[in-house]
């Protein structure tokens, strides 16, 4: 058999992946994903409750406050390298939609920070995450700050 046929043979590829892939412990992986994802959701609810009871926000504003706080915390933890460790431990459990979104925004930009703020971080934010996501987050933060400081 020639080399090309070996690499394109689906049965051979399947056999190779079975031989070279380490088995993943399903039970402990599910448990880790469940408790970390639950903890993140519980943190979001606690932040929302703090907004309602301590900051005197209505439920809608408190949920916005919780979303912004979770995005900020995830971006910060991604920036200092902690969120990657959480992701390795909990797998998909750490990527509750809002934290996964924030991590997807920050991670590519960090890889290119040596190239500078404009050509590295800024360009990669637009290239990888897409202009719509970057504009949406940026605009919502600016709008939220203006609303919180001047309108509300």
Q: Topology of this structure?
A:
Layout: H1 3-8, H2 10-20, H3 26-53, H4 59-79, H5 82-90, H6 97-111, H7 117-129, H8 131-151
Summarize the structure in short.
The protein has 152 residues and is an all-alpha fold. Helices cover 82% and strands 0% of the residues.
The total count of helices amounts to: 8
Large-scale geometry: flat
Helix content: over 70%
N- to C-terminal separation? 73 Å
Q: How would you spell out the order of helices and strands?
A: HHHHHHHH
Beta percentage is under 5%
- Stretches where pLDDT is under 50 for at least 5 consecutive residues are none
Describe this structure in words.
The chain is mainly α and 152 residues long. The chain is built from eight helices and no strands. The chain has helices at residues 3-8, 10-20, 26-53, 59-79, 82-90, 97-111, 117-129, 131-151. The chain is flat and about 65 Å long. The N and C termini lie far apart (73 Å).
């Amino acid at each position: 058999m020639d080399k090309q046929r070996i690499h394109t043979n689906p049965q051979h590829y399947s056999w190779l992946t079975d031989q070279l892939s380490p088995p993943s412990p399903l039970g402990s992986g599910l448990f880790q994903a469940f408790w970390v994802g639950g903890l993140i959701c519980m943190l979001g609810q606690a932040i929302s409750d703090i907004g309602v009871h301590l900051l005197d926000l209505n439920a809608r504003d408190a949920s916005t406050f919780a979303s912004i706080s979770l995005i900020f915390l995830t971006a910060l933890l991604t920036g200092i390298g902690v969120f990657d460790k959480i992701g390795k431990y909990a797998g998909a459990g750490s990527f509750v939609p809002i934290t996964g979104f924030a991590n997807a925004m920050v991670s590519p930009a960090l890889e290119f920070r040596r190239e500078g703020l404009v050509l590295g971080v800024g360009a990669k934010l637009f290239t990888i995450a897409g202009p719509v996501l970057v504009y949406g987050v940026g605009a919502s933060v600016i709008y939220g700050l203006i609303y919180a400081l001047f309108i509300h």
